[in-house]
Every structure is written in structure tokens, then in C-alpha cells.
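Q: What structure does this chain adopt?
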Amino acid sequence: MTAFWTDYGFYLWLLTSVLLGIIGGVTFHLSRRLKETNARYTQLIQGVDGDKLEDIWLGRAQQVTDHEDRLTQLEQLSRQIQRASIQHVGLIRFNPFEDVGGDQSFALALLDGEQNGVVVSSIYSRSGGRMYAKPIQAGAQTRVLSEEEEMAIALALNAATPVLSNHT
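A:
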């Protein structure tokens, strides 16, 4: 056994030293990487104001929830505005009297998405002009309407886009 150590002791010592050097180098490298990773982690969890990352995430989640609630409110308001806006328009021009030339009188129907609104009529004659406004509820008359006013309402309800029409 002594001959083994005498013959191979130097090589074993050299091999052990190399292995310890390799292990030391790997340990140093891993220690450096761990320190860098820890520094990046510490930087990541610090917010702009020094908040923790978890607090920032919870705050952002609350903001998203608040924005979703506000978006829902805005969508509801948009639907209400859309229903209340003028969506149906019908215009009929006509000549109510034989002694006046041209179609200078008109009936104009303005209705919202629920078919509520008004029909405005203008009757023009040589002696002057007169205007009338009559309410419309759910596409139905609430007052007695002239033939031209009824045609303007029908045109408004049947037309996808505003249309001008002449009636003789």
C-alpha cells in the first residue's frame, strides 16, 4: 500500500487539486449568477414608488376591474343614446293647392330607434306659410295626420337611410 502512495500519490494529489479547482470555479460561477439573479429579482419586485410587485399587480387588477365596469356603463349609455337619437327620416314634398306652383310644402318625419318622434308639416300658400308639429309614439299617430304626414312616417320607417321623395 505504501508503494501505491509513493508511485501514484503525486498524481492523486494533482487530480484532487484539479477537481477542487473545478468545483471551486463552478461554485464561484454559480454564486455570481445567483447574486445577479437575486439583484434582478429585487429590481423586478420594486415598483416605481418602491411598491412590491404583488401590490402593483393587485392595483392593476383593480384598475382593470374598474375600467371594465366603466366600459359596461358607457356601453349602456351608448345604447340609450342610440335609441334616443334620430334614426328614421322621411321627407315628402307636395303641392297642397292648385293655385301655387311647385312642391313647396313638405311633411318631415323624424323618429328615434323606438319609433318615437315628431312629424313636421309646412303648408305653403300665396297668403303665407304655416308649420305644424305632431308627436309620434311607437310609430303610431297621436293626432289626426294628413295623407302626406302618414306617407312621411311610412317612408321613414321603411327606409334604411334618409330619402327625399316628391308627391304630386
